[in-house]
Design brief:
Blueprint (H helix, E strand, L loop, with lengths): L1 E6 L14 H8 L9 E6 L2 E5 L6 H4 L7 E3 L5 H4 L2 H4 L7 E4 L17 E3 L9 E3 L2 E7 L7 E7 L2 E6 L7 H8 L5 E5 L15 H11 L3 E5 L3 H9 L6 E3 L5 E3 L1
Length: about 250
Amino acid sequence: MQFTFLGTGDVRQVPVFGCGCAACVRAQRQPERRRGPTSALIRHDGQTTLLDAGLCHLEKQFAPGELDRIFLTHFHMDHVQGLFALRWGMGPNIPVYCPPDEQGCDDLYRHPGLLAFQPFLRPFDPVPCGDLLVTPLPLIHSKITFGYLIEHRRKRLAYLTDTVGLPAGTLSWLQQRKIDHLVLDCSYAPADSAPRNHNDISMALALHQQLSPAQTWLTHISHEVDNWLADNALPAGVAAAFDGQIIEM
């Protein structure tokens, strides 16, 4: 299985429009420092699975029939905006799996085009996709949001964005399993006040300790976090992911 970080930024992305901070200036000058909307791609056994659809112009990045399925974490615009043009394309329907949010986003449900929305996912009820097994996990966010445990030939990757901490049931469920790679929301630098909707560095590192994965990758990263990372080191086993990075499992 090959896991690719298509985007690792928060809703503002990096560089942030109009911002002159050090992280944004670096990203303006060095394209490899830029961060697009958080999303990922899984290639396995000749199949392609998209995790979230926040990147614009998906219709230009994938050929008809290339995407076997899409899993959405939730219906905030920075995680679904790429679907609005893609749906009006031609070719085979694309199955779309999502949490039980009946509001969705705008008119995607009413006019899905070639998007074949599947019955709402149920927490902890796995979805088999060939040799891939995808289990939805409840997260804590301002919209109904699922993370996913992705299993392929005895390897496990937990994809947990967007969230602030974890519900007790999700934390306990994951602690009973060996996780090879943990991809974890981290949108804020350490702060005195508790963050809203997204983890800060301190919360992300605490979850790394609680879940004990072989490796943790931080994603949904803001320019504030990039500035913090420029002056601070992460502990062993934790790293900030970057756009285009590939994990081979």
